[in-house]
Sequence to fold (202 residues):
Amino acid sequence: MFTQLILDGTAPAVPLLEEFFDNLNADFRHMYPQDPIRVRRLLMQSLDEMLRQHNRSLIDFGFEAIELRGVRLQDEDDFWRPRIDIIRNEVQQQTQQLNGQQREFFDECSLRIAISLENNVSLICFLQGKGKEKRILHVLVCLRHIAGTGKSFLLKLLASSQRLLGRHVVIVGSSGLAASAFIRGTTAHYQQGFTKLKTLLS
Fold:
């Protein structure tokens, strides 16, 4: 009902949530009575997922992007944590499958991630499907090669190896189709809270 009211424009979302917060989170509060932070996170996550079905986000209705990004990062943690042993086994097996060029890129990228985190610098890794392999030895990393040469395999392995170190990894694509190649992949515009064209234009 909450999402329908704000979608219809019947009531402003932020005051409505605060007024009926206890009613909305009753189920989560029953499950986690001693953890109000988790209760709020689960509620926000649940509401945001309902709005996604209408190509909207809580950000569209005045909620802070930083809070929702925190919700999504915690959601990532909740998804990957129970799978950590599977990830560890996959990383061990897949690193043994790397050829020389792949191993060089993997080691180099892992080192640059470590350096960027140590110096509090963002690192972005792009994959492109045409042309020759190109590595840009800065915080921006670009891997290009023809189809079937292991670009996605390398990215998945890099992501898994970083998750083993307790780091948050979000894989984004320029489209839903591109993102769907990865477990938990999302689009770049959705990750940044741009769920509607009018949001992008504003």
Observations:
- Strands lie at 124-128, 140-144, 172-173, 186-187.
- The chain has a mean pLDDT of 77.
- The first strand starts at residue 124 and ends at 128.
